[in-house]
Amino acid sequence: MRASVKRFSALVLPAVMLAAVQVAATAPAAQAAVGIRFSQLLNGERLSDGDMIQVTDLPGGVDSGVIKIQLKLAGVSWWKGIQSGPIVLCQAQDNQTSSAAQFSVSDFRANGLQLWKAKTFGVHTQMYNIVDATQQMSGGHSYVFVWEKD
């Protein structure tokens, strides 16, 4: 009996691994970020993946060549992040419910602003690209993004 189990395992395991590779090879490419407008965040609208993110614009308090971004989690605990192109600005998860950063208006103008979250298996995924961020957000302002639902 043990010999037949070993032979069965030796035959089945490679077949299962091959099937997994074939499935992965035919899986669709990673989803592209959805373009959203800044007004959707100001209004706290439900976004395409079910997220609700409310942004508040607080003028003043920082130099005119700088933008301050703050991310707060309210009732959600999976990883969330805000980036400007390759620059990770803020991230929060579990007990760390808030994070803030300041960055230059020139970096912001060059890279825009994107909202990220952990998806299946905790993979950090760019979900939303704020398509009009560089037109709607200004230096000398602080912006508080409250991620309320995911």
Give a verbal description of the structure.
The protein is an alpha+beta fold and 150 residues long. Helices cover 27% and strands 39% of the residues. The protein has helices spanning 2-26, 38-42, 105-111, 133-136, and strands at 34-36, 52-59, 66-73, 80-84, 87-92, 98-104, 114-118, 124-130, 141-149. The strands form 2 sheets. A 5-stranded mixed sheet has the order 1-8-7-4-5. The protein is globular, with a radius of gyration of 21 Å.
Write the layout of secondary structure elements.
Elements (H helix, E strand, L loop, with lengths): L1 H25 L7 E3 L1 H5 L9 E8 L6 E8 L6 E5 L2 E6 L5 E7 H7 L2 E5 L5 E7 L2 H4 L4 E9 L1
In short:
By secondary structure, the chain is an alpha+beta fold. It has helices spanning 2-26, 38-42, 105-111, 133-136, and strands spanning 34-36, 52-59, 66-73, 80-84, 87-92, 98-104, 114-118, 124-130, 141-149.
Q: Determine Rg (CA atoms, Å).
A: 21 Å
Q: Which structural class do the helices and strands define?
A: alpha+beta
Report the β-strand fraction as a percent range. Answer: 35-45%
Terminus-to-terminus distance: 50 Å
Q: Please provide the count of β strands.
A: 9
Number of domains: 1
Q: What is the fold-level CATH name, i.e. the topology?
A: Immunoglobulin-like
In the CATH hierarchy, the architecture is: Sandwich
Task: Output the keywords.
five-stranded mixed β-sheet, Immunoglobulin-like, 39% strand, alpha+beta, 150 residues, 4 helices, 9 strands
